[in-house]
Structure prediction request, 196 residues.
Amino acid sequence: TRSPLSDEILLNQVHDAINAADANGILHTWNVASERLYGYSAEEAIGKHVSLLLFPEDHNDFYGSVMAPVLANGRLEITLRNRRKDGTEIYVALRLSVIRDSDGNVRHIIGCSNDITARKRAEDGLRLEVQEREKAQYTLAASDARFRHLLAQSPAIIYSCRASGDYGATFVSENADRKSTRLNSSHTDISRMPSS
Prediction:
C-alpha cells in the first residue's frame, strides 16, 4: 500500500540536499535541505540551470568533469566546489544518478549532496602543513650539504666548543684529521739525528 505522504514531504524530511534536473541541466526538484545548503528557495532555483551553483570560472570544466561522466556511466560520486546565493564558497560531496525511460532516454539526473567544507579545509590545511614541513626539511638538508661541502673545501680547521665548563669541542671539521696526518708525517724525530 502506498504511503499517504507525498514525494515532496518525504524529500523535505531528508537532511541531505536533494535536487533533480533534466538532461539539459534544468532544475525541477529542490528540497528544503537544498535551500539551507545553497541559500536559494525552491522558487528561485526551479527552472534554472544547475550552473546557478557554480562560480563562473568553473563553468567550462563542469560538463567534462560532471555531466559527461554521469551521462556515460549512470552514476557519479565527486567532491565539487559550489557557490551559494550569497557568493560564499562551499564544498559538497555530490552523488548523482541518472534515471532513463524505457527507450533509454534521460528523464532525470538526481543529485544528493552534503556540505563537507569544514572537512575539506581541514584536509587542505593538513596537506599544506605537510608540504611546508617537507619543504623545510629538504631546504635544511640541502643547506647542511652545502655547509659540509664548504667545510671540506676549506683549508682552515673549523671547530666549536661549549661556552663553559671544560670547553669541550662540539664540532670539528673533517679536514682536522687530514692536517693532523700531514703534520705527523712531516715531523722529524730528533732522536734519529746524527750526533755531532
About this structure: The first helix runs from residue 7 to 13. The CA atoms of residues 91 and 121 lie 9 Å apart. The longest strand covers residues 89-100. Helices lie at 7-13, 32-38, 42-45, 59-73, 117-153, 175-186.
